Amino acid sequence: MQLILIHDDRTGRLQAAHGWLRHCFGPPGPYRLLDPVSQLVMGLIGGRTRGAVSAAAFMRLRQRFACWESLRDAPVAEILPLIAGVSFAEVKAPRLPAALRMVTARRGALTLDFLAGWPDGAALDWLERLPGVGRKTAATVLNFSTLRKPVLVIDTHHLRVIRRLGLVGPRAGIAEAHDCLTPLLPSGWGAAEIDDHHQLVKTLGQRFCRPSRPACPACPLRALCLQGVPRRR
User: Fewest C-beta in 10 Å: which of 86, 127, 147, 184?
Assistant: First the structure.
């Protein structure tokens, strides 16, 4: 019996999309990497919230608490006003100290540096057991922090784009999409290249591939898109 290997053309389409987006938007700008616990805090307050709003809330937490151990031990009533501008603040306020307490209980100290030596899948699984941590937040801790592991981050903008491009199923969630796309990433990409890819796709989702009334005729990926409005002749 002959084994037939079928090439998945999504790999080529993903790389083509990356090239076009980099040509259109340019390389994403650099940013300061947070330590892993700080990135966890940022991720826990940032869901469904504009970046500027979550960044402001993060800075208020930084200013109030001298260290994250102080946030871990703080009452929810003290935390809630500091993050009041973020979405679902009343849910996130108790989750913040709960997640930090669980890290401390499981490791004996409030640190995530040990994840640097773990396989990516095991590190994701460990983080996703923390209160309020899903695949997106876990991936940001591993990729956006000083851990700088080659783990793909997918947010709602990124997910919307790859669904419309047909790179994942139309009903795929973030975790399923992550598991589907990770094997398609070029083998030569490291953490920085994977981060750049996410930032480029996210930018497309914000500027062109919007949830409603997407700007399909002007989209730089319209030739690759399975759902976009055809270009007028």
Answer: 184
